[in-house]
Description:
Blueprint: H1 19-29, H2 39-45, H3 49-56, H4 73-86, H5 90-104, H6 109-140
Amino acid sequence: MAKKQVAVSLRKPPPPADLEKLVVDAVNDAGSPRPVSDVRELKADAPQADAFVSAAKPASVPGMRAVTVQLPEAVVERLLAYCRLHERELNDVVAEIIARHLASQRPSSQVEKAFDTAYEWVRSQLVVMTSLRTRVLQFAGW
């Protein structure tokens, strides 16, 4: 039985006769000021990915920290509408809402006692460490 001829070839096509000319023509067509035949030169002239990423990321604000929260869509829509209406930044409005909520909450007496105890313990450890540091420095003659 004779083999059937396959119409599709799975081999890679041969490279063009003049690969360097192909690269130079492609670069010239893209509006490059000069022909470039070395791929390393192309890479050096290309804008770096970091520039795109930093341009896409909002600049961090000193004293602020990025936090991701999940909110119901209806709440987000109302919040965005409020910000547009009053010409305010979303970050500022959310920070104000959370600050007001936390200020209205009175910590329980157990939490206050635990905090005070922990604070006093840390403070006593700091006094001990400072005293030890002073003695070590005196012993070393510094």
